């Protein structure tokens, strides 16, 4: 019985260890300022020598500056991640400022003044959950679900978003599916989306 309890304890510990390894590394000291000059490949970045750390490693200037929204989508993201603030390394958080032109949109993607926001739940439900946000409102996008934002007002809008990663990245669905290099097979995409190949070729030409 004692051996069985010990074995179950080991299994539980192994599961916890595997879950922790799947997440971003947690800091085991006061800070782990990213060392951009390091050559070690790891999840996150190597720590700078604490004696070399400066106040500038924890600061960023420019979030007050409006982004240029003159592109086709009408939005601009100003990212503040560990690249901009090395002191964010291992803290599992980053920040973005999103500027929207009137009717500008942030297209469907995975990784947020009136804004329409929404996300789609996973299969098989695929529920579209959406809301109109007003000044001061907060909205949460669950991790991993496809989501979007659209400025439905007639003036510019700004959103501040907190992200649960020090280096969140972004996967824009249309660009990824139809703009991959090399192309994903036309036959595969036509079957997956249940459309003619000509429709796939047209979309691939855009991206």
TrEMBL record:
Signal peptide: 1-22
Keyword Disulfide bond recorded: yes
Binding site for oxalate: 111, 116
Subcellular location: Secreted, Extracellular space, Apoplast
PROSITE patterns per UniProt: GERMIN
Residues the record lists as binding Mn(2+): 109, 111, 116, 147
Family designation: Belongs to the germin family.
Function: May play a role in plant defense. Probably has no oxalate oxidase activity even if the active site is conserved.
Pfam families per the UniProt record, alphabetical: Cupin_1
Protein name as catalogued: Cupin type-1 domain-containing protein
Entry keyword annotation includes Transcription: no
Domain Cupin type-1, chain residue ranges per copy: 61-201
Cysteine pairings via disulfide bonds: 32-47
InterPro entries cross-referenced by the UniProt entry: Cupin_1 (IPR006045), Germin (IPR001929), Germin_Mn-BS (IPR019780), RmlC-like_jellyroll (IPR014710), RmlC_Cupin_sf (IPR011051)
One example GO MF annotation: manganese ion binding
GO cellular component: apoplast
Main subcellular localisation: secreted
């Amino acid at each position: 019985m004692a051996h069985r309890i010990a074995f179950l304890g080991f299994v539980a510990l192994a599961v916890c260890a595997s879950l922790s390894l799947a997440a971003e590394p947690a800091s085991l000291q006061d800070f782990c300022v990213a060392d951009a000059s390091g050559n070690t490949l790891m999840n996150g970045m190597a720590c700078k020598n604490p004696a070399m750390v400066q106040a500038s490693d924890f600061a960023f200037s420019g979030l007050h500056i409006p982004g240029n929204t003159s592109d086709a989508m009408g939005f601009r993201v100003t990212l503040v991640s560990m690249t901009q603030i090395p002191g964010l390394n291992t803290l599992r958080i980053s920040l973005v400022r999103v500027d929207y032109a009137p009717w500008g949109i942030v297209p469907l993607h995975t990784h947020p003044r009136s804004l329409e926001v929404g996300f789609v739940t996973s299969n098989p439900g695929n529920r579209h959950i959406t809301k109109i946000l007003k000044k001061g409102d907060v909205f949460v996008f669950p991790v991993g679900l496809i989501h979007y934002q659209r400025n439905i007002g007639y003036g510019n809008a700004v959103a501040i978003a907190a992200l649960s990663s020090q280096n969140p990245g972004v996967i824009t669905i249309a660009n990824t599916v139809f703009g991959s290099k090399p192309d994903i097979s036309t036959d595969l995409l036509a079957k997956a989306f249940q459309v003619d190949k000509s429709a796939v070729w047209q979309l691939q030409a855009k991206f």
